[in-house]
Amino acid sequence: YGVIPFVAPEIFDGNMPTKESDIYSFGMIMWMLSAGVRPYCDRPHDSQLIQQICSGLRPSVVSGTPSAFSKLMLQCLNASPSSRPTVSQIFKCL
């Protein structure tokens, strides 16, 4: 799959990677930049973590993260691929 925290939940469900799954990965990179640590660094990267991610687990927004940044990040991490922003929308926000 790749590095578990950065893989979109739909990929774990057997779907092929898409632009939308890349947007999810970008959202996790955004979170890592705001937190200064790797996502889920406090737990094993195993099948239990995969199951939790597929059930909706997302890292919490870090205190002090600018609201526009956290809003975009959360949109990128949306469970529904079709609800994630496009690259063009991300570009306009940044």
Automatic annotation (TrEMBL):
SUPFAM superfamilies: Protein kinase-like (PK-like) (SSF56112). It comes from the Eukaryota. Keywords: Kinase, Transferase. One of its GO terms (molecular function) is protein serine/threonine kinase activity. The keyword Iron does not apply. It holds the Pfam family PK_Tyr_Ser-Thr. InterPro entries: Kinase-like_dom_sf, Prot_kinase_dom, Ser-Thr/Tyr_kinase_cat_dom, Ser/Thr_Kinases-Pseudokinases. Residues 1-94 form the Protein kinase domain. PANTHER family: SERINE/THREONINE-PROTEIN KINASE TNNI3K-RELATED. This is Kinase-like protein. It comes from Rhizophagus irregularis.
